[in-house]
Each structure stands twice: as C-alpha cells, then as structure tokens.
Amino acid sequence: RKPSPTMPRTQAAGHVALAAGGAVWLLAGVAFVNPQGPATARDAALRSHRVDMSPFQAAPEQPEVTTGMSWASFASVVAAFGLVVGIATTPVRAEEAAAPATEAAAPAT
What we know:
- This protein is an all-alpha fold.
- Helices cover 48% and strands 0% of the residues.
- The model has no long low-confidence stretch (mean pLDDT 75).
C-alpha cells in the first residue's frame, strides 16, 4: 500500500497538537501551584502590621415578603409547557419501507 502525500502532514499536525497540549498542561500546572520559596522582605513587612478586627453587626430583621407569581412568569411557564407538549406529541412521518432507487442514483453498467 502506497502512503498518501498528506500522511506526513497529518502526522506532523498531530505531533504539534500533542506538544501544544503538553505545554498547556505544564503551564496550567505552574499557574495554579503556589511556590513555597523563601519569604521576602515584603512578606515580612506585611506581617508586621497590626489589623484591627471587629465582628459584623447583624442586619435588622425584616418581615418576610411573599409575592405571588406575576403574569409574565405565568405566561412564560405556560408557553414553555406548550412548546414541550407540541414537540412531544408531534407525529413522526417516517416511511415504513425505503424508497425505491431512481435511475440517477443507480450505478452505470
């Protein structure tokens, strides 16, 4: 069997895609791993500052307001239900047997 002239190109494209995928995988690993290098002077300066902490104050309780479904929401639910019913109950018009072959589709002898 004679190899086609496009086979080396497709193999080369596959190798390029594989190499690019590996490079992206390595770069993604480096991007999401926190290096544990030596502490810098900036880190020490940040740790020396004192932070005053105060607890959050609870929000005042508000009475629960219940609202009914608006007409727009009701109309959209009815429309969605109508679409689902329309799709589910549409009859399928498939033929029982395959159509006979025409002369144009028949192979020439």
